[in-house]
Amino acid sequence: xxxxxxxxxxxxxxxxxxxxxxxxxxxxxxxxxxxxxxxxxxxxxxxxxxxxxxxxxxxxxxxxxxxxxxxxxxxxxxxxxxxxxxxxxxxxxxxxxxxxxxxxxxxxxxxxxxxxxxxxxxxxxxxxxxxxxxxxxxxxxxxxxxxxxxxxxxxxxxxxxxxxxxxxxxxxxxxxxxxxxxxxxxxxxxxxxxxxxxxxxxxxxxxxxxxxxxxxxxxxxxxxxxxxxxxxxxxxxxxxxxxxxxxxxxxxxxxxxxxxxxxxxxxxxxxxxxxxxxxxxxxxxxxxxxxxxxxxxxxxxxxxxxxxxxxxxxxxxx
Length: 318
Fold this sequence. Notes:
mainly alpha
């Protein structure tokens, strides 16, 4: 009984952290658009992750957390993947549109099952694949604009972003088994900061921004949206499969679209509304499948405990 209760409790507590992280990620689109009025993309990325790394190092010092060798290794790996994801996305946005970029990036939902199969030997369940397909279709309706635009070089760079995003989700799942989420995220942020600082220097953008507002936005992106949300996401992946996590993370464009409609007055058409409904449906599939599996696991564990108890009683009587 107790192991089943522990499993259910952990799942119920950790899965919402992924949803909260996705909600925070969705808010970044509006904030980034506001900050980019005052700064170049490489400047924003460098300042964002430098702030995240500095605040994170301070938090580790206050909490008395020191990275282990395993955490250093995985943190650097995750940092390299995240840096590649940010770089390819930034380069891609120079020639492709934001809507196409959002849809191509969401391709990681389709790539995660393949990456998980190769890296972890994790065979996705049928309900996970169904949820991923529904989420991808919903993302397409939500983000793609008609008529379709021609393929440009930025689309290929953004496809690389989708691949690195899939690698990041699977690598985080592998790393979090023996690592602390905050420690991993701080190391990851430091690596991304170094790469983006080099990009800011080579591009000639530098690190300065004019005015208080862009710095406040960057502070939010660095602390809440990078340090906090990434730590929540990594923490939640302890009990969530990579495919299920990717479907929940895929809600990010939905949050961004709804926030854009509220904060910026952007309108949602019929196709976008249908896409939003499909994405919510994909989230429901993941939640329903999770409840079904938890119930089956609880029954299995309870049955095993009962058999052990009966065996002990029989042994004592004999």
